[in-house]
Design goal:
This protein is mainly alpha-helical and 273 residues long. Helix content is 57%, strand content 7%. The chain has 15 helices and four strands. It has a two-stranded parallel sheet. The chain is globular.
Length: 273
C-alpha cells in the first residue's frame, strides 16, 4: 500500500513556492519541464492532480482528505496554483485555456493540435487515465468550470477522431464529469456504492442549501431562478442528459468500429462496457 501524505503536506506543496512533493520537486519545477519529460515520467501527475481515492500506482502520493478539500474550496490562491498545473497539461495535449468575459472559461484546440495529438490520442494510451484523473481532481477541488471546458473540448476531439477512442475511455471521462463527487469514475451511480462519506455529506449539505434558497425565493414571490443544470439536477438525471448529448459521439464510434470490421470478441468487449 502507498504511504499517504496528509493535507498539510498537500496544501504546502501548492501554497508555497518552496513546497515540494515526495521527489523533492516544486510545482514550478514540474510545470517547467519539457513535453518529453512529462510524457515519459509517471510519478508527478498524482501530485499535480490529487484525488480523494487512494492509489496503488505510486509509493508516495497526495490524497485529498476533508481538510485539504476545505482548504482548496475556500482559498482561491490554491485553485490558481492548481490551474497553473492544469494549463501546463493542456499545452502538453495541444489545447489552449482562455477566460472570456462573455463566455467564461474555454478550452480549445491549439493550431498545432493535429501534429501533437498523435502522441497521446490512441487506444490504450496512458494519457487517457491521466485525463480522467485531471477531470475528477479539478471538480473535487473546486475548478468545475475548467473541468467542464476541458470535457467539452475532449468531446469535440472524440467526434472528430472516433477511431482513436474506446468506449471505456468515453464512459470513464463522462463519469469523471457527471458522477456525484463522492463516487469515483469507475463506479456507476446505479451500483448502490456509498462512496466517500465526507464528500457525500458535503453534497447533501449543498443540496439542502439550494432547496432552502429556492424556497425563500418562492416565498418572496420571486419564483425560481434558472441556474446551471449541473448544480440543480440530480446525478442520474444529469447523466441521462449527458448521454443524450453524447449520442453523436457514440454513434460515430460504433460506425468506425463497424467499418474496421472488428472480430466478434472485440465487439463483445466494447458492447459489454
Amino acid at each position: 500500500m502507498p504511504f499517504i501524505v496528509g493535507a498539510e503536506k498537500l496544501v504546502g506543496f501548492f501554497e508555497s513556492p518552496g513546497g515540494k512533493d515526495w521527489q523533492g520537486r516544486t510545482l514550478a519545477q514540474i510545470v517547467a519541464k519539457s513535453d518529453g519529460w512529462l510524457e515519459r515520467t509517471h510519478n508527478y501527475i498524482q501530485n499535480l492532480f490529487p484525488l480523494p481515492e487512494e492509489s496503488s500506482s505510486a509509493q508516495l502520493l497526495f490524497v485529498v482528505d476533508h481538510p485539504a478539500f476545505e482548504a482548496f474550496r475556500s482559498r482561491p490562491e490554491l485553485q490558481d496554483r492548481l490551474r497553473l498545473a492544469f494549463v501546463r497539461m493542456l499545452r502538453f495535449y495541444a489545447f489552449e485555456w482562455a477566460d472570456f468575459p462573455s463566455r467564461g472559461i474555454v478550452v480549445q484546440r491549439a493550431a498545432h493540435f493535429e501534429l501533437i495529438m498523435t502522441r497521446w490520442a490512441s487506444k490504450g494510451n496512458h494519457n487517457y487515465l491521466r485525463i480522467t484523473r485531471i477531470l475528477r481532481s479539478l471538480r473535487v477541488l473546486g475548478l468545475e468550470e475548467d473541468a467542464l471546458a476541458f470535457y467539452r473540448a475532449l468531446q469535440e476531439v472524440i467526434r472528430m477522431y472516433p477511431s482513436r477512442f474506446t468506449m471505456d475511455t468515453i464512459v470513464y471521462w463522462r463519469r469523471a464529469m457527471t458522477n456525484p463527487l463522492h463516487l469515483a469514475p469507475h463506479v456507476r451511480v446505479t451500483d448502490g456504492v456509498r462512496g466517500i462519506a465526507w464528500l457525500r455529506a458535503f453534497e447533501e449539505a449543498e443540496e439542502r442549501k439550494r432547496q432552502e434558497q429556492a424556497a425563500e425565493k418562492s416565498a418572496l414571490g420571486e419564483g425560481f431562478v434558472e441556474v446551471d443544470r449541473r448544480e440543480t439536477a440530480g446525478a442520474e438525471e444529469w447523466i441521462v442528459e449527458q448521454d443524450r448529448q453524447d449520442t453523436s459521439s457514440v454513434e460515430a464510434f460504433e460506425e468506425v468500429q463497424e467499418e474496421e470490421a472488428l472480430d466478434d470478441d472485440e465487439l463483445e468487449a466494447v458492447e459489454g462496457v
